[in-house]
Write a structure and sequence with these properties.
This protein has seven helices and 17 strands. The protein has helices spanning 25-35, 47-55, 125-130, 134-140, 150-153, 161-164, 209-223; strands spanning 2-5, 12-15, 37-40, 68-69, 72-80, 105-112, 120-124, 144-148, 177-181, 183-185, 192-194, 201-204, 229-232, 239-243, 247-251, 260-267, 273-274. It has an eight-stranded mixed β-sheet with strand order 1-2-3-14-6-16-5-4, covered by helices on one side. The chain has a three-stranded antiparallel β-sheet with strand order 13-7-15. A three-stranded antiparallel β-sheet has the order 9-8-12. The longest helix is centred in the C-terminal third of the chain and has 15 residues, at 209-223. The radius of gyration is 18 Å and the shape is globular. Bound molecules: succinic acid (SIN). Residues 78, 88-89, 95, 106, 120, 249, 251, 262, 264 line the site of succinic acid.
C-alpha cells in the first residue's frame, strides 16, 4: 500500500489498498486519523463490501433525507442526472452536524463520474483553527453553537431541485437541533479544531443574532482560504472517507449535461468534547 499526502495540511491518496481486506484496515485508519480524509483509489466493491468496511469503524448512521438504495437502506444515493441542475451538498457543510452525536465520517463510493469536473472540495478545521490568533482562540473557547436540519431539509427546501427530482425527501423528519462546542478536541487525534459550518450552524448560543453572525462569518471567511483546502478529483471506483469532526466538504457542481452517481455510507460518531 502506498500513502501519498494530497496537500501539506490535509488528505492522502492511498494506492494498492483493498478496503475488503481486514489486514489493510489498520494502515487505512492510521492514515485517516493523520490526514482527516483518505482517497482509496480504484476499489472494486459491491454495496455489501461498502457496508462491511463502514462497520469496521462503528454503527451506520442512516441518513433520514437522502434517497436510499432500494436493496440497502443504509446506503444513501448521491446523484445528479445529466438533465438536472442542482447537485446535493453544494454548500460547505459537515454531514449530520445537526445530530446530538455528529457522525464520525462518511464513505463515498464513485460509481459513475463525469468526464470532467464533479470534484469534492474539503477544508481542514484543525488547520483553520491553528491559524487563528491566540486571542481569538481564547474568545471562542467555551462557546457553543446551535446546529439544525430544519432550514436545509425541512419544508422550506421542499421546492429545491433535489427534492423535486426525488433525490432528497422526508421534509417532515427535519426536526433535529443540537448544541455543540465551537472548538472541539478531536476524539481520535486529540487535535483542536473548529466545529461550525455554513450550512447547518444557525447561531452561537447566548449571543445576539448579529453578534453570532459576525463571528461565524469571520470564521467562515477564514476557513475558506485555499491553504486549508484540498480537492478530490474522482475516478470511477474511487472511495473517499472523510472525518466529519475535522473537515468541511462541498460538491463542486461544474459538470452540467453529465451524470454523476455515488453511494454514501455514514458512520456514527461519539459525543463531542470541548477543546
Ligand atoms: C456530500 O455532501 O456528501 C456529497 C459530496 C459530493 O457529492 O461530492
Amino acid at each position: 500500500m502506498k500513502i501519498v499526502p494530497l496537500t501539506g495540511l490535509m488528505g492522502a491518496e492511498i494506492f494498492d489498498a483493498d478496503m475488503k481486506n481486514p489486514d489493510h484496515f489498520e494502515q487505512i485508519k492510521n492514515a485517516f486519523v493523520q490526514h482527516s480524509l483518505v482517497i482509496l483509489r480504484a476499489q472494486s466493491i459491491t454495496p455489501d463490501d461498502h457496508l462491511q468496511f463502514a462497520k469496521r469503524w462503528g454503527d451506520i448512521n442512516v441518513n433520514r433525507f437522502f434517497t436510499a438504495l432500494e436493496t440497502h437502506p443504509e446506503i444513501a444515493i448521491v446523484l445528479k442526472e445529466a438533465d438536472q441542475t442542482g447537485a446535493i451538498g453544494e454548500e460547505w457543510h459537515t454531514d449530520h452536524a445537526y445530530d446530538q452525536v455528529p457522525a464520525l465520517g462518511s464513505i463515498l463510493h464513485a460509481i459513475q463520474t463525469p468526464p470532467f469536473g464533479g470534484d469534492t472540495a474539503f477544508c481542514s478545521m484543525g488547520a483553520a483553527y491553528d491559524a487563528l490568533s491566540d486571542k481569538f482562540k481564547d474568545m471562542l473557547t467555551g462557546l457553543h453553537a446551535w446546529h439544525s436540519s430544519r432550514h436545509v431539509f425541512g419544508e422550506a427546501q421542499a421546492d429545491s431541485n433535489a427534492a423535486a427530482s426525488g433525490r432528497i425527501g422526508n421534509a417532515q423528519k427535519a426536526v433535529q437541533d443540537a448544541l455543540h462546542p465551537v472548538v472541539i478536541t478531536h476524539p481520535l487525534s486529540g487535535r483542536k479544531g473548529l466545529f461550525v459550518n455554513p450550512q447547518f450552524t444557525t447561531q452561537i448560543d447566548g449571543l445576539d443574532k448579529a453578534e453570532s453572525d459576525a463571528i461565524l462569518n469571520m470564521i467562515y471567511t477564514h476557513c475558506q482560504k485555499p491553504e486549508f483546502q484540498c480537492r478530490v478529483r474522482w475516478q470511477d471506483g474511487d472511495v473517499t472517507m472523510w472525518d466529519n469532526r475535522a473537515t468541511w466538504h462541498k460538491a463542486i457542481n461544474d459538470y452540467h449535461g453529465h451524470r454523476r452517481y455515488m453511494h454514501r455510507v455514514t458512520v456514527e460518531g461519539v459525543p463531542l468534547q470541548a477543546g
